[in-house]
Design a protein that fits this description.
50% of the residues lie in helices and 7% in strands. By secondary structure, the chain is mainly α. The chain binds s-citryldethia Coenzyme A (SDX).
Amino acid sequence: MTNTRSLKLIENEQTLCELPVLAGSTGPNVLDVQSLYKHTGMFTYDPGFTSTASCSSAITYIDGEAGILLYRGYPIEQLAEHSTFLEVCYLLLHGELPDKAELSTFEHNITMHTMVHDQVNLFFRGFRRDAHPMAIMVGVVGALSAFYHDAMDIHSKEDRLMCAIRLIAKVPTIVAMCHKYSTGLPFMYPKNKLNYVENFMRMMLATPCDEFEPNPVLVKALDRILILHADHEQNASTSTVRLAGSSGANPFACITAGIACLWGAAHGGANEAVLNMLLEIDDVSRIGLYINKAKDKNDPFRLMGFGHRVYKNYDPRAKIMRETCHEVLSELGLHDDKLFKLAMELERIALEDDYFISKKLYPNVDFYSGIVLHALGIPSKMFTAIFAMGRTIGWISHWDEMIADPEQKIGRPRQLYTGQTQRELPLK
Ligand code: SDX
């Protein structure tokens, strides 16, 4: 971070203050406004943080205009094509790709922590069988904060790494347990001889009555889906984790705050909403009706899976997800999958419509992911939980970076107050 120049704030020819302009390694510079209130008695005002950098970070870079996404400098296209999710987890957490030995050790450590404490099973019993999986995830992942007091010194790098290992390893187990609980089928325990995604697919889709034979094409597809969801800069759920963590809160509780935020339909809940939207549209002939609803200011309906706060170009993850969709459907012999064809026609029509072109609304990561997950046999209620499984590494990497940041302090935004000024309580 370098101080490039400064900008003066002048009112009636009087300099109110001089604010430094800071540059990172690439991307927009920032105006450092930390001294603004001290010098002017004013706050900045930016609901939704459309022009606000909440922190400095070296983990992920997004260029929304160019449609670029880099994890520790590596393009998402190259990682999705040539890497594995656990290798990407190591990269996001440590900043560099692992060598062969480092990756093997990392994979072994994750494998050795995939089981949850047997008491965790009891938490599920309190939920109705039809509880939304994200509600259960908030409850059960949050409960993990009551289990690991042996490694909870957040100022110890070793303890922070142990938390990361435990979360990367246990979230898939809990996600699979959420699904099994909803079906009434027994929980499946992890099998150490399987790799990370094979293990998850077995816990999620197999039963104790049969042997699980992983399909390598489907395993690779889900591994790639997790890579695409791993991190995305200061999105709403990651910012939630950072804000929760800034108070020194338990890391398992902070990740749970991220899970809660991700559940929203405007964020990670969009993949489930996209599938429900496609099922509701049902036929190509009805696409126009829904495009018009999305454009109607008086209609709250939005085209789910379209638009993004940062990407004003095609989300690079959506392109890869569409290719993955095609691969999975071909492998499963679903060439004429109605939903996929409907989605592609919806995308074509929307991208030719001036409303979407003028507002730079393109498909985002959620637009195709639901179709792939549906084809993999994962129920739509589980889609956001799968997103959380991929994003856990991003959340814990940002939490770790924040705790280690010497600039770190508790997050405490201010406000523009528009309520009642002081008034006297009427005497009774
Ligand atoms: C994710 O931040 C991240 O990085 C998130 C994420 C990640 O990896 O963490 O990328 C994951 O959350 C992807 C987004 C998934 N959400 C959806 O697909 C839901 C549908 N999309 C929208 O709700 C919306 O596009 C957002 C929430 C994604 C972005 O909203 P913004 O940036 O606040 O934009 P906006 O609401 O101000 O919209 C700008 C204009 C508005 O019209 P005007 O008021 O200017 O006339 O575009 C319109 C909006 O009405 N608009 C849409 C639309 N999205 C925006 N109109 C119809 N359909 C849509 N999908």
